[in-house]
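[step 3/7] fold_predict: job queued, chain A
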Amino acid sequence: VGGHPVRLPDWDAVRTFIAGKASEMGARYFIRQNVPELDELGLERELPEGAKMTVWNRDTEGAGKARAAEADFGIVVADYAAAYTGTIAVLSDKDKGRSVSLLPTVLIAIIPADRLKTRLGEIVPAFDRAPLGGLPAGIHFISGPSRSSDIENALTIGVHGPGIVYALIVG
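[step 4/7] structure written:
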């Protein structure tokens, strides 16, 4: 649905892929979720010299949206994904701000293979089973770059959100 899926064998390959894309695209500013998987990835060591990585709600000091808006790459770990629709589900909370996936020019969504389901109908029941007050601040379903057409039906891609989306299926 307009994104670029890539199957990678392990997290080392994820780090190499992101560093390679960053170099290829001349990216300098990055923002990522504040999650253990990305802490362990150690991506900061592989980025081009002079690149700046911001970690949501750890390095942003209340300026998370501004940091996300100026970022070349936003990096998230998907909570779920649905193969039939090419949809990535990202839950938001204090460490996983939705701006990380919405505002940068490029979205890198890392999908652990065990979180990949066949269809949305396999994902939604998990939210129904959540205890009262146990739902996240937001549930965001991402299906590639936005597509908008004005009154003359001129298709424009990436008007809202990232114009380029990479879905990295790992494992």
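[step 5/7] annotate
The first helix runs from residue 11 to 25.
The chain is about 20% helix and 30% strand.
exit 0
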